[in-house]
Amino acid sequence: MRKLIRTPLAWMVAAEIAVVGALVVVGWHVVVSASHPVAAAPVVTSPDAAGDAPTPLPDLPLLSPQRQLGPLPGLNIDAGFWRERLAQLNRDQVDLEQVQWRIVHSAEDAVKHYIETVVLPAIQRAEEAGGEGPGLTLLG
User: Fold this and answer.
1) What's the confidence (pLDDT) of residue 140?
2) Cα 37 to Cα 112: distance, rounded to the nearest angstrom
């Protein structure tokens, strides 16, 4: 047991469990707090306007569900909307493909340069030295 506590892997696993547990707790708190309705501030009246009649307690209205913060959920069926979005997607796709090709060609050039400057000279030196390196035996 003492050996298990001293290993770094055990501490890494414990730290990962703690981090994931904390993220689960925070996520759960966000989900639960999002489902509760939020009360608006009560209406405050001045003491002069109260008069002799007893006033009822102020109402705490919930935030109105009619207030919209963005577009309604659902599928936008406007052709212009989709034409614009798909054109942007196509432009982004072309840019991404160009970046990918640059990466691939750079990797190809790096491999070609490595083979020409490191591997082939080493093979040529080995062939000039007689074909057998240390520990190599040719079957034949």
Assistant:
1) 41
2) 64
